[in-house]
Backbone:
């Protein structure tokens, strides 16, 4: 394993010394692909991006951008549901508005979702063209270690010589043979945005990030929601305290969680769907969302011919500067199985191009990657987890502070959530953090900086924060370590 503190030099045997002489070909238009293309082009390389599922990839067109746009609408309804405590009343009858008193036009919501996704895709394409990237709409595959065959959308086939190739082909939703997607009643997460009416009863199969986010969002939108989880808790692998808060939030909002239950299949009925559990029990609903993870799009990519090693799961093997087993071929994003995060894909793509074009680069450091789950409330994490501390893998003190003592939280009617800090006992260096709160995805940044730059609890505690603000709790929890005198 490479030392994360040491920059890895480029391979001078692979690419010409002058970037102008380098031909870079990128297969895949998602964050890993388009960020890599922008990086390579701005360094002067002749860059071609081959996108067969649209510029922006799944992240922009069918996954991250659409889902977070939908969730933004759900957040508004969630705020309305809590407005009674804030003294907000209907102007006509004086009653407190609730989410149930409002109608959701799902067709209008999804029209907006698709429009924003298309606009983001167009913006990215414009940026690529402005940077000098040649964008080809079509399917790319390796034709050896330094050639890419492109089957264009126009039916033409081109072969491109390449000094460096980046594979950023992403992943597709996993499908059960016993629950084939039909795009109408049995859906994967890319198909939700074609719905014109709100599901009366949505059965969500899978309690990972995707399942939890859509269960939270559709309940806020007004659907009855049943979440089928094969685990004891939702969000397996996530901070246990955070999962507890979310389960409590689900219970208060009326999401039915069927824990320790595994789906055997799903079938359509005359006016709905039935999900069958392995126990034989059947759950009836109007729609089913199968959120069972992703499968890398690595078949028929010419990997075997080129000599690129692939794991049993189908993911491409890479090191921390995105190199595959073949010199000059790199990979980034969900097809590598490193982290299913758009931010990580983009970082992998940039690192790959810096390395390929002759720059020494710092490898991807997993402990410095922050991530968020866009439920209500949001959950954001970075660095070492409490589970690693409990198992003895890492020595750290765990500091935790609930938001119920935060004055801004009281003003906004926030009654759930916390901040958690993991600190090295001797040096007081910040090793990890968890934030559970509205906009936790924004609040995690100071802790990510602290982990990346090895700041101490004292430095966090001594940093000025706005009063009143939720960020005040980010510093306040660090003071627990300072006041304890290092004990």
Residues:
């Amino acid at each position: 394993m490479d030392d994360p503190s040491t920059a890895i030099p480029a391979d001078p045997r692979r690419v010409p010394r002058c970037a102008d002489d380098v031909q870079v070909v990128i297969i895949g238009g998602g964050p890993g692909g388009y960020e890599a293309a922008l990086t390579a082009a701005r360094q002067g390389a002749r860059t071609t991006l081959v996108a067969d599922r649209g510029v922006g990839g799944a992240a922009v067109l069918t996954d991250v951008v659409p889902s977070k746009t939908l969730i933004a609408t759900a957040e508004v309804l969630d705020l309305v549901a809590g407005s009674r405590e804030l003294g907000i009343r209907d102007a006509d009858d004086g009653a407190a508005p609730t989410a149930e008193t409002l109608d959701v036009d799902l067709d209008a919501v999804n029209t907006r979702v698709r429009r924003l996704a298309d606009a983001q895709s167009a913006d990215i394409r414009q940026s690529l063209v402005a940077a000098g990237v040649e964008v080809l709409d079509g399917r790319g595959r390796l034709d050896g270690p330094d050639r890419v065959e492109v089957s264009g959308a126009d039916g033409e086939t081109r072969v491109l010589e390449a000094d460096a190739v980046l594979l950023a082909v992403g992943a597709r939703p996993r499908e059960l043979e016993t629950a084939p997607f039909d795009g109408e009643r049995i859906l994967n997460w890319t198909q939700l945005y074609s719905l014109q009416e709100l599901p009366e009863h949505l059965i969500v199969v899978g309690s990972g990030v995707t399942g939890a986010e859509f269960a939270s969002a559709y309940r806020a939108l007004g659907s009855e929601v049943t979440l089928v989880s094969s685990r004891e808790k939702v969000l397996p692998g996530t901070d246990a305290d955070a999962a507890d808060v979310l389960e409590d939030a689900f219970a208060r909002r009326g999401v039915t969680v069927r824990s320790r239950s595994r789906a055997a299949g799903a079938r359509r009925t005359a006016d709905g769907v039935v999900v069958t559990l392995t126990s034989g029990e059947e759950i009836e609903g109007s729609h089913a969302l199968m959120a069972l993870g992703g499968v890398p799009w690595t078949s028929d990519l010419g990997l075997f011919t080129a000599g690129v090693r692939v794991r049993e799961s189908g993911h491409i093997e890479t090191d921390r500067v995105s190199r595959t087993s073949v010199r000059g071929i790199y990979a980034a994003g969900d097809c590598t199985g490193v982290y299913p995060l758009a931010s990580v894909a983009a970082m992998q793509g940039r690192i790959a191009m810096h390395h390929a074009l002759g720059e020494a680069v710092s490898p991807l450091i997993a402990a410095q990657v922050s991530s968020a789950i866009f439920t209500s409330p949001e959950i954001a994490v970075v660095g070492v987890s409490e589970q690693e501390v409990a198992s003895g893998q890492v020595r750290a003190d765990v500091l935790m502070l609930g938001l119920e003592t935060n004055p801004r939280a009281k003003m906004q009617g926030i009654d759930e959530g916390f901040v958690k800090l993991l600190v090295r006992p001797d040096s007081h260096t910040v090793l990890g953090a968890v934030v559970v709160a509205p906009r936790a995805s924004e609040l995690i940044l100071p802790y990510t900086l602290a982990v990346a730059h090895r700041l101490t609890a004292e430095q966090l505690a001594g940093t000025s924060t706005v009063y009143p603000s939720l960020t005040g709790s980010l510093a306040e929890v660090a003071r627990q370590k300072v006041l304890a005198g290092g004990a």
